[in-house]
Design brief:
The protein is of the alpha/beta class. It contains 50 helices and 24 strands.
């Protein structure tokens, strides 16, 4: 035989001509051995088997020796098979490349092995081929395990046996590749097809084998030893894991436990027995912790010299490329095994019809099916789990990076992005990047899946597969067009949803003001308007998705009809095996067509999110070098600014401060004064480095503390706010409480300093918030104190105490820069800086500046004119003015508004300290913010009923179910028609076959269309009704609800839960219906054709139900806990951004960052274990479904063809192949529906909020123009904020005549603001009566009452919009009236100077206006409203004395005939009132004309005396 013959011969025996010349015979034998395919494979297999035996022997030897050498701990036998060491190691790309290529070979050889066995083993060549690939597959799987073992034991070199194998293998592969090339060039005629395939394989494997040969020669494994870092460094991960209590089982799980999610079983078991609690959920493994992710992100951030255009994308790829490769390889495995099942259908049909070559072939086929389906289940669920884990890590990384950036942002960057938008980056964009990971690989897998499917179709159906290709291309194009439209719809949907959420957030943040002004209906209209726009785009999006669903679900039937029709026209023979193989392949095509557009959308959204985050993370940061900070310096200058020019905008030309030159010495008290908007607060910001320094030098010597003008208080206890992360020093803490005048406040609070402060300090008065943040600054014991108008929100007495005890007492040795409007303290300061238009126009001592006149003289003159009445009263009655009573038993000594006897202070300090301790120990912690209500157990069936019947009752539900039944029946009918027509006993009639099948397909398509539209319409109508109900409920909720409920909790209902109700729940419920009807069809057809499996159905269903219940018990609670732990992440970020100036001043960035990390970890552990529980369930259900399928297939193989016809075997398998996936999907989606129904449950909780009184009660107003006089009469009025709290007002009885001007004074917390709240019925009286012009206000509608009262609240609130929309929100007034109002409130010139005039921008919260200007705008609102009764709650607290005098004059002139009730801390403000009400501990202690109160010993006289004596402090 010639060499060429041996090259192409599949024979394993040689026909060698015997020759006398032994050399010739030997050559012929060598040619046969090394050139013939069969001996080549035997040689290669022998090398493989020898290598496997070597590995087994070495492993067995190690194992045996370990058991026999237990006492010899130092024996080398106890070492692992591969080299290890205690040094620190680094894994390089070389190792990962080796592992990847060996894994690729293992997968490829496994696929070739399966294909070889599928093709049969009838001939000796086929047996050799199949065994050869089996040995190759096993060998390379062992090599993959060995290489992975090297990483675990940190082997720096490959084992010698592996290196020898790779070298030998390379030689053999070269021989095989050379033989293949020679065969291709020299051999003419027919060559076995499998031989051609092998030649292609070896030609492709050759470069891989060459690389492995190089690896073998080098010897290095790619694991590099680094310099030793200490004994513990090599076991760092172990130490970390052991140090964390209740760490996730994933951290310590074995490979088998990780492969099957056994490590989740303890948590699921615990959750099944009782509802799982937050502390029972294990923490994340150390390698998944957010702090590690933050370090990883920072380490991989591109260097400036790299000039990266997409830094976030680049960084994420650097951080997670290995994980992306892992998920990609899992996706490839899933793709490869996916098509094995359909390819087996034809073989099963041939086997059952008698076309068998081997009696055991059926069992081989079942075994191959089992292995393929198990591999598919494992690869599919590991792909999902690792993709979701990767998404979780990316979300963690991005959130921590965004938070860290938020701490560094410059002011202009913060304003450019906005707090709401920054929060969106964290809440929305980070989540979109996380969600992308499941879709990412679909981009390149979809073409591969389609190519594989079309090739298989071509193999079975010939050229008719081209028709399928055209139809699929059309479906893809249609889906892409719809996806493009969906992207547009979603963009506008998100845009309008953001607008609605922004309006909702603004409404919730300012609900007190909205209720004061009776603007609920106005905000209801605004939010409803945004919702209608959002709903329009939501409807378009939903119906567009419905069309896509129709196409995707109808595609298999349409494709089948098209392919079969073209096949018949082309003369293709259709038998049962061919038909059902084709239908199964066509069903598989549905998935990539559906996933590809979704993946494109996800990628597009991710790129948008990446772009947004690129802009944010590369935006301007605060320049740390702008201020030269020196701590512990010996200079006498504490603060120095030379030629300073500052701007709020990093790139703007306008300077807010110009030519600033100051030197403040250590220990000096410097005051900064000036009119509203002169730049006082900006100067402090410049010293702190918060402004952009255009030029000049700023030097700060020592640590800094800052008290902002607008209080920033955390949602924590009072103690936590004061400590601010510093350790407790009891002596210093008590001293701080004393000097900040907080002791009395804490004593009257039920829980003392353990009282929890609400969001934005909502349950504290303005003065209490100011003093708490002052206490926070004092406790930090810094060198330099920057105090911004700390006296504006406190009464005169408290202000004097703070100035004396704190500013001039506890802080006497500190450097203090004080911004103030209180002129009476200025003579006690070391230096005064007078500002105007961003410049320091005067500087010096009080008397020196007074002599100079100009700006400072004008300020002092305004103050002195306001004090004239005080001075006159004091001088006239000085002999009768009492001092504060000495006796602690006098009635006034118990009041919270007045100073106790100085001689008793020291003796009572210890007693009060004990009282404070007792308040904490006896009464526990006051929880103003209650824990979020969390249901446990199953979602109540009532919730399902309410949701499903919300739109059309039970009729709508019945319609959806009936249409779904008809749809499934039509599909089954079409497949039965295929089986009937392709049976051997039926005469095949092509026109009838394709005609009937097309009609049935069209009917199925119609039912799909009807169901999609019904579900979409019902879902939209239900979502709209629920939205209307919850908005109405929130608007009608009493103020106490907003005091005790964080806005984030309400916003989560308006955002996350509403989104679930809008789109997610209808989609999921539709999927559940489809899945369960599909499952029902599969079971029916399988049981009809393999009747013994009927006995397995009951156990199958029982296991399904049991696993569902077992899994759902934990999954549901994890979903609820995920919702509860997600809100604190966002709230903490929002709170941090709001108070970032304070945080940066105190250098607390690290502790706040750690607080964010802790919250992220708390949330991610819920997410991680929830995802793991999903895959735990999925793997088990898919394995159960696989075993059921294989059992039914065995019955089909065993039973004779007379019992089960071959065509019905094909029908059963075409359905049964998807059983495992459909069964899991149905169960999983039903669980997802239950988890998502928690959103409906949460919304229903807020829909049932107890409502406040009706807004309007018909025919209850005494007259349309009520009130006409403004008489107010209170009788025994008692008020408490909530049922479980003590009385705040205790028996208030007084009568105010119409047109009177009443001043209300008293110490902070005495009940002044509460009195106003009860008159507006923000708080309902617990007892007593309030009459206005003879009408009991409790019998009136709330809007009828509130709309007729005017108020300037304590906190000046502006809404995002324009000056016009803020001063006249409802649009009731003309432009002339608005300008007149602005003129009266001294803002006309400011507004007129802006280019937009009345349309000048007001940012969120009015941050682009000074606090004083905001207060003036609020005054303008009231002037425009012209109410008969006007309330002023510290209306002039944030303005200077000059502006205060002007405002008081305006009020006197514009409201001359109105009843005015003015709460004030500035005594001059109330001196010209008709009467003054002195409040003390919730009781009216005095109520008379100021002159009368000054004529006798009174509390008011004491207050006046104290106020007038403040300048003597």
């Amino acid at each position: 035989m010639s060499s060429a013959s041996w090259l192409a011969s599949p024979e394993c025996s040689a026909s060698i001509n015997q020759s006398p010349e032994s050399a010739s015979t030997a050559i012929q034998w060598l040619r046969f051995i090394f050139l013939s395919p069969c001996p080549q494979r035997v040689i290669f297999s022998a090398i493989d088997i020898l290598f496997l035996l070597t590995v087994v022997v070495l492993a067995a030897h190690r194992l045996y020796s370990r058991f026999t050498s237990k006492n010899n701990v130092n024996s080398s036998i106890n070492k692992p098979l591969l080299e290890t060491s205690k040094a620190h190691f680094k894994v390089t790309v070389w190792f990962y490349l080796t592992l990847l290529l060996t894994a690729l070979l293992a997968i490829s050889y496994t696929v070739l092995c399966i294909l070889a066995f599928i093709q049969g083993t009838q001939s000796p060549w086929q047996i050799v081929e199949a065994v050869f690939w089996l040995v190759q597959a096993k060998t390379h799987v062992a090599i993959v395990a060995l290489v992975a073992h090297e990483k675990k034991f940190e082997a720096v070199t490959h084992h010698m046996s592996l290196r020898i194998y790779w070298a030998t293998s390379f030689v053999v592969v070269c021989l095989l590749a050379a033989s293949g090339i020679t065969r291709f060039v020299t051999v003419d005629g027919n060559v076995d097809p499998t031989m051609k395939l092998d030649d292609i394989v070896f030609f492709v494997v050759l470069p891989i084998s060459a690389f492995l040969f190089i690896v073998a020669v080098r010897g290095s494994s790619g694991i590099v030893r680094e310099p030793e870092l200490g004994r513990g460094s090599s076991s760092q991960a172990t130490d970390q894991t052991s140090g964390i209590p209740n760490v996730s089982g994933y951290a310590k799980a074995s490979w088998f436990s990780k492969a099957t999610w056994l490590w989740m079983s303890p948590l699921l078991s615990k959750g099944y027995k009782s509802p799982i609690k937050m502390e029972e959920v294990p923490s994340l493994a150390p390698e998944h912790q957010a702090e590690l992710m933050a370090e990883l992100f920072a380490r991989n951030w591109p260097k400036p010299e790299e000039n990266s255009k997409h830094p976030v994308q680049t960084t994420l790829l650097r951080c997670f490329w290995k994980d992306i490769c892992l998920t990609g390889s899992l996706a490839v495995v899933k793709l490869v095994v996916m098509y094995i099942g359909p390819m087996l259908i034809d073989s099963f049909v041939d086997y059952t019809s008698g076309k068998r070559s081997n009696p055991y072939e059926g069992y081989y086929l079942v075994l191959i099916l089992l292995v393929a389906k198990v591999t598919e289940a494992l690869s599919s669920h590991h792909f999902n789990f690792h993709s979701q884990k990767l998404g979780m890590l990316i979300r963690s990384t991005v959130i921590t990076a965004l938070y860290r950036k938020g701490l560094r942002l410059s002011n202009s960057s913060r304003q450019a992005h906005g707090v709401g938008q920054i929060v969106n980056y964290m809440a929305v964009d980070a989540q979109q990047l996380s969600d992308l990971m499941l879709q990412l690989h679909s981009l390149w897998l979809m073409p591969l899946q389609l190519i594989a499917a079309i090739l298989l179709l071509y193999y079975y159906m010939g050229l008719s597969s081209i028709a399928a290709l055209v139809a699929v291309a059309a479906a893809v194009i249609f889906t892409l067009i719809r996806t493009s439209s969906n992207n547009v719809f979603q963009f506008y949907l998100m845009k309008h949803r953001d607008s609605r959420l922004r309006a909702t957030n603004e409404m919730l943040s300012n609900m007190r003001v909205i209720k004061y002004q009776a603007w609920e209906e106005h905000f209801n209209q605004i939010i409803q308007m945004y919702r209608q726009e959002e709903y329009g785009w939501l409807s378009k999006f939903t119906f567009s998705i419905a069309w896509t669903t129709i196409v995707l679900w109808g595609m298999p039937v349409v494709l089948a009809a098209l392919v079969f029709g073209v096949g018949i026209a082309l003369g293709t023979t259709l038998d049962a095996g061919t038909v059902f193989t084709a239908t199964t392949i066509l069903k598989i095509i549905q998935d990539p067509v559906r996933m590809f557009p979704q993946a494109l959308t996800a990628v597009a959204q991710a790129f948008i999110s990446l772009g947004r985050m690129d802009r944010f993370l590369t935006s301007q940061e605060l320049d740390e070098r702008a201020v030269e900070r020196v701590e512990g310096c010996g200079d006498r200058i504490a603060v120095e600014v030379k030629d300073g020019t500052f701007s709020w905008d990093d790139e703007g030309e306008d300077a807010v401060l110009k030519g600033v030159n100051i030197e403040i010495k250590k220990g000096e008290l410097t005051a900064i004064v000036g009119t509203v908007g002169s730049g006082k607060s900006s100067l402090l910001a410049g010293i702190l480095g918060e402004l952009y320094k255009k030029s000049g030098k700023v030097r700060v010597c020592g640590t800094t503390a800052y008290v902002a003008q607008t209080s920033w208080i955390q949602n924590a206890t009072i103690q936590d706010n004061i400590l601010f992360g510093s350790p407790m020093n009891k002596e210093r803490y008590n001293q701080v409480i004393k000097v900040c005048s907080l002791r009395k406040d804490l004593e009257i609070m039920e829980h003392g300093d353990q009282t929890e402060i609400g969001e934005r300090g909502i349950n504290l008065s303005g003065g209490q918030k100011q003093r708490i943040q002052l206490a926070r600054a004092v406790y930090q014991d810094c060198d330099i104190y920057l105090l911004d108008d700390i006296f504006s929100a406190v009464d005169a007495h408290t202000g004097s105490e703070i100035f004396k005890e704190c500013v001039r007492g506890a802080l006497r040795d500190k450097t203090i820069v004080l911004v103030t409007h209180q002129v009476d303290f200025l003579h006690n300061v070391d230096r005064i800086l007078v500002m105007r238009d961003g410049m320091i126009v005067q500087s010096g001592k009080y008397h020196k500046l007074l002599e100079a006149g100009t700006d400072f003289g004008a300020l002092v003159a305004a103050y002195e004119s306001s004090m004239e009445l005080v001075a006159m009263s004091t001088n006239t009655e000085s002999s009768d003015v009492p001092t504060t009573p000495d006796s602690p038993d006098t009635p006034f000594s118990r009041g919270i508004s007045f100073n106790e006897n100085r001689t008793l202070e020291r003796s009572k300090t210890l007693e009060r300290s004990k009282t404070l301790e007792r308040s904490k120990s006896e009464k526990g912690v006051a929880k103003l913010i209650e824990e979020e209500e969390k249901e446990t157990g199953n979602v109540n069936l009532e919730v399902y009923k309410q949701y499903c019947t919300e739109s059309y009752g039970w009729l709508g539900v019945a319609g959806v179910v009936l249409v779904s039944i008809f749809w499934q029946t039509s599909l089954m009918g079409g497949d039965y028609w295929l089986a009937y027509e392709t049976s051997a006993s039926t005469l095949f009639n092509p026109p009838q076959f394709i005609g009937v099948y097309s009609i049935i397909g069209a009917i199925a398509l119609i039912f799909v269309l009807i169901r999609a539209y019904i579900v979409a319409y019902m879902g939209l109508k239900t979502a709209q009704k629920l939205f209307g109900e919850i908005l109405k409920s929130i608007l009608h909720a009493p103020m106490s609800f907003f005091d005790t409920t964080p806005s984030g909790r309400i916003l989560s209902r308006a955002s996350t839960d509403q989104t679930a109700v809008d789109f997610v729940i209808p989609l999921y419920m539709n999927m559940v219906l489809l899945s369960y009807f599909s499952l029902f069809g599969i079971l029916v057809i399988t049981c009809l054709n393999a009747w013994p499996t009927v006995f397995l159905v009951i156990p199958l269903l029982w296991l399904n139900v049991w696993y569902r219940r077992y899994y759902l018990a934990t999954s549901r609670e994890l979903t609820r806990l995920d919702g509860i732990t997600k809100a604190p992440v966002i709230h903490h970020f929002s709170e941090t951004i709001s108070g970032v100036t304070t945080i940066r001043c105190f250098r607390k960035q690290a502790s706040f960052f750690q607080g964010s990390v802790d919250r992220v970890n708390a949330n991610l552990r819920m997410d991680f274990h929830y995802n793991a529980s999903n895959e735990w369930l999925g793997l088990r259900l898919e394995l159960i479904g696989t075993f059921f399928l294989c059992a039914s297939t065995i019955f089909m193989v065993l039973l004779p063809s007379t019992v089960i016809k071959p065509e019905f075997v094909g029908l059963s398998l075409s359905y049964g192949l998807s059983l495992n996936v459909v069964m899991f999907w149905a169960t999983y989606m039903s669980c997802m529906v239950e988890n998502r129904m928690v959103s409906v449950e949460r919304m229903k909780q807020f829909i049932k909020i107890p409502s406040e009184a009706p807004w309007r009660i018909p025919d209850c107003l005494p007259s349309p123009d009520w009130p006409t006089r403004g008489d107010i009469h209170m009788k025994d009025l008692r008020v408490r904020y909530r049922a479980n709290t003590p009385l705040v007002l205790r028996g208030v009885t007084l009568h105010i005549h119409g047109g009177e001007k009443i001043g209300v004074v008293g110490r902070t917390g005495s009940g002044k603001s509460t009195l106003i709240q009860v008159l507006f019925r923000l708080v309902e009286p617990a007892a007593g009566q309030i009459m206005i012009d003879g009408a009991d206000i409790c019998t009136l509608g709330l809007h009828d009452l509130r709309s007729r009262l005017g108020i300037i609240p304590q906190d000046p609130v502006l809404f995002e919009g324009t000056v016009r929309s803020n001063i006249d929100p409802i649009g009731l007034h003309t432009e002339e009236e608005i300008w007149r109002s602005l003129e009266h409130c001294q803002l006309k010139d400011v507004v007129a100077a802006k280019p937009e005039k009345l349309d000048a921008l007001v940012t969120d919260g009015g941050d682009n206006w000074s606090v004083g200007q905001r207060q003036l705008l609020c005054l303008g609102r009231v002037i425009l409203k012209q109410s008969r009764i006007l309330f002023l709650d510290e209306a002039t607290a944030s303005v200077d004395s000059q502006t205060d005098a002007i405002i008081q004059k305006i009020i006197r002139e514009d409201f001359v005939s109105c009843t005015i009730i003015s709460v004030a801390h500035r005594i001059p403000t109330v001196m010209d009132c008709d009467r003054v009400l002195v409040m003390d501990a919730g009781r009216p202690k005095e109520f008379d004309a100021p002159s009368h109160l000054m004529e006798r010993p009174s509390l008011f006289a004491s207050l006046v005396q104290e106020y007038s004596n403040r300048s003597d402090i």
